[in-house]
Amino acid sequence: MELATVVRVRFGGLSLAPGLRGPYGVAVPVEFLSDEESARFGRYNGPPPRSELDRFFFLDDADKAQVAKRRGDHNRLGFAVQLATVRYLGTFLADPLDVPQKVVDYLSQQLDVADPCCVKDYTRRAKTRFEHMWDIRELEHLRDFAEVEADLEAWVDARAWTTGDGPKAIFYDAVAWLRQRGVLLPGVTSLARLVARVRDEATRRLWTTLSGLLSPVQERAVDNIVVVPEGARACDLERWRKGPTRTSGPGMVKALERVAEIKALGAGVFDLGGVPRRRLVELARYGMSSNAALLRRHPSPRRLATLLATVAWLESKATDDALELLDVLMTTELVGRAEPEADKDGFR
């Protein structure tokens, strides 16, 4: 039975993406951006430092030539503010004058505008700022998000499939991806929804790919390792996770029995090369640390994928543990006993 079916995503009080799930199918909120982070998206967050003013707000001769085509200081300064803003933020503002005064002063000095306060008249004629926006889009060769949305989805899918990175890291890298390609940033809700959805789909495909390798007989065998047999105190997975605890002959026998039991499941025969190693390690780490009862409650594809990755990792670990135990026994028992005998022979 799946855990919860509706997950709500909230950004600044808005509800997004109902029905989304977390990276392991657990019904957790996908609130990977805080209210503050979402409010800061695509907006000025205080006056830009001098280095950023010089980088994004400096007007060269070509910029000034475009500004000079506008009539009136307020229109020239307003056009410059919008031009510099879209270069800095990657988007136009709903209120083009919602910028720090430091930005207005910096631009007015370059344009020799005596009174920077005149920019307040820029929005009196509503059509002016929209006409300027279209001119700036053409000048900067800016594209709409809809033009590259499919490409961005493919990029997010590849990133999520390969790395399993968290949604916040993918979100901010997606912003950089859009900026590098001259794409106007969409609203925070649209981009967050895309990242959460595509990342979730990539994770589900990972589970389906791994669980699909198992035959019905193998599925039952894998499922049984998290079931406590009648009369036993723990399931096989919990026993195998502990590993050998005693450095002795009986301990060596138990270590070899552990290897044989795990190998009997046949996880080592599957070709897992089509799945990024990082994702396999991630699933195995989760399987090694999670309670068996919790693993049993996961949806079938996720449970089987997690257990398969865990068993594949345990097979390698059990073999290494047995070899290390053998090495310790050889050193402490056989070699350790041989040295006193050799000393006695030398004394005689």
Structure, described:
The structure is a single chain. A hairpin with a 2-residue loop joins strand 1 and strand 2 (14-16). The longest helix has 48 residues, at 300-347. The N and C termini lie far apart (75 Å). 63% of the residues lie in helices and 2% in strands. Helix 4 (73-89) crosses helix 6. By secondary structure, the protein is mainly α. It has 3 domains: 9-31 and 144-210, no CATH class; 50-140, no CATH class; 216-347, no CATH class.
Fold blueprint:
Elements: E1 9-11, E2 14-16, H1 35-40, H2 50-56, H3 61-67, H4 73-89, H5 101-111, H6 126-140, H7 145-163, H8 167-180, H9 188-211, H10 216-224, H11 236-242, H12 249-263, H13 277-289, H14 292-297, H15 300-347
Antiparallel strand pairs: 1-2
List keywords for this structure.
15 helices, mainly alpha, 348 residues, elongated, two-stranded antiparallel ribbon
Quaternary state of the chains: single chain
Strand order of the largest sheet: 1-2
Helicity range: 55-70%
Mean pLDDT: 82
Number of helices: 15
Element-level helix/strand string: EEHHHHHHHHHHHHHHH
CA(first)-CA(last) distance = 75 Å
| Structural shape | elongated
Q: Radius of gyration from the CA trace?
A: 31 Å
The fraction of residues in strands falls at under 5%
Low-confidence stretches are 1-30
SS content category: mainly alpha
Question: What is the number of domains?
Answer: 3
> How many E strands?
2
* Largest pleated sheet: 2 strands, antiparallel
